[in-house]
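hey so u asked for the seq, here:
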Amino acid sequence: LTFLKKPAILGSMITIEKTISLEISYPISRLGDPESLAFFDIETTGFSARSACVYLIGCAYLTTNGWETRQFFAETPDDEADVLQQFFSFAASFPVMVHFNGTTFDVPFLQTRAKKFGLSFVPASVQHDIYKKISPYKNLLHLPGCRQKQLEEFIDIHREDHFNGGELIELYHSYARQPTKELLDILL
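ran it, structure tokens below
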């Protein structure tokens, strides 16, 4: 992968854009016009949208220049409303959203957090939830489960995660108290 990093700081919320070079063997046109698709995921400080906040939203999308990623990062929990507002504005230009278990977690979480700040989040009219599409085939494919890491291993994608979600929450709180480049790199 080749990354071109262009951080743009809006207040203390950070937006990071990267152009990435990758090949995708799946014909994503099956999901819709490739340039109308946005893949996204959120990172939160817990499972309850009533008490936890969104600290990172990551997106990937295809442009005429190739694949791009955009990350919206809250340097402190006080930046959450800015992160949400920037993501909602960005996402509005994509009629198709692709996510993993977003129907059950990400989208309702974002809607609850938006309501807290008086914002409105209307998800794309077309949603592709990878989890919901693959889970009916779990037994047919002899999958041990449908967690994202299990599916990645099944299709021979291996990534090195040095920290689990719970550990990342603690690292985020450490970063919010005393920001360092090393912690930011881990969180992103």
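The first helix runs from residue 80 to 91. The chain is about 30% helix and 25% strand.
lmk if thats what u needed
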